[in-house]
Amino acid sequence: MSSAKLPLAFALAAMLLGSASHAADKKDKSHDDEPKPEAALLHPQASSSEGSVSVEGKRIAYKAVAGTIVLHGKGDKENDPTVSMFYVAYFKKGDDASKRPITFVYNGGPGSATVWLHMGAFGPRRVVTADDSHTPAAPYQLVNNDYSLLDASDLVFIDAPGAGFSRLIANDADASKRDEQMKDRRKEVYSVDGDGHAFAQFITQFLTRYGRWNSPKYLFGESYGTTRSAVLANDLENEDSVDLNGVILLSQILNFDTSIDGPDQNPGVDLPYELALPTFAATAYYHHRLPQQPADLESFLKEVEQFAIGDYAQAMMAGSNLDDARKQAIAEKLHQYIGLPVPYLLKANLRITGGMFEHELLGDSGDTTGRLDSRFAGPSLDPLSKEAEYDPQSSSISSAYIAAFNNYVRKDLKFGQDQVYREFADANDWNFKHDGHDGAVNVMPDLAKAMKTNPNLKVMLNGGYYDLATPFFAADYEMHHLPVQPELMNNISYDWYPSGHMVYAHEASLKLLHDNAAKFIEQTDNVTKH
Fold this sequence. Notes:
Structural class: alpha/beta
CATH architecture of the largest domain: 3-Layer(aba) Sandwich
Number of domains: 2
CATH class of the largest domain: Alpha Beta
Largest sheet: 10 strands, mixed
Low-confidence stretches: 1-15, 17-35
Radius of gyration: 23 Å
Number of helices: 18
Number of strands: 14
CATH topology of the largest domain: Rossmann fold
């Protein structure tokens, strides 16, 4: 299913990491959550093991638990099991668990398993992939992760409902009623609000099971996981009375009106074009497609940012009132900044979507750039297409992650021997209505409320210069427009990396991400501070 056939809200979100549209390309469409009660899903499962990891020269011994937590309904349905959520937790041995920080980690989608952050960023083992090209087929190399976040915090990697080993539960004794029950489960859970509530219930149950209520607590979400984090932080703070120490956001999207994936479906909304421009410029810089190659990327991007919110934004605002001479001048300046030919820019009316840019930048060589990481490139499926038809980055590394985890979880963690690990949930019917409102999802108010009701809450924003899925300048814009008091803006920190959506896929950036996140946790850990 192509995103062009979907409602706008889904078309925007479906293109994020772990998207349902990507899932549709990869999964067996017949594998919907089975309307058959499975006894194992109705009870928590756990498999324990031990290991060690060397993080930047420091050896850390840990206990690992791979298992499930069963969620239940609310009110008169509190005894009704709804979801079996899979997790892998790593606990550092020898520390006082009640005082040690704990970080809940998840990818996005919506409906993605958390294999990416687990095997690429912060787990004790990391799969080796090529930096900006296609990783050769198996065998893949699994190595000690020198940049696991286990030195700073215990870690809990959570698979979203329906993904990984997580499953929705339909357990009515009547088979005909189980089908309806499963439909109800999907409607409840596969939604912005239902997903947030599910993760909140998982976290509170986890805190109880492992005695971690008094530990410093953190959320770490990537891509749609940042959308989830805003909803989840608000739910935890204001429904469950769980004050968080920090929220770490990677490749952020909080307001889907900023997405560059769908502005051509929403004429008159020009902001996404402006916010994507610095990422276009970074990509052209990386592939040496600029008329004059700047000496320094960061200084170049600052210049492009000023143009994006200045002359370019004013030209876009003028619409049909923009005179031909001014339009020509803007097109020529765009050519200097993003490398596309002036005639093409004029024909596009100065408005370039992400898919158009990915297809056109290297079009003379027959290649398409990556979307999640525009440093990557691969042969265009159709050289005459208007937009990119696949993501070379995703095709380059996904197999390595999935193969590595499927081996690791069964061999090392001793879990899932006779189960299927799903890269994505079958969440094509995801409900993007939030708090009863239609239109593009915007969870900026959720994060703002969490920060207002817990004014000590710190937020760390991370992004890659080469991310065309969630451009870094759009994330920066969202944060600087968060509806909070000026003093609360001081609670937000920003870190940018010479990498893409999956910042950690670039090893040098992974080290920086680790060091920055570890420092953030240390500075916001009230146990350590006091």
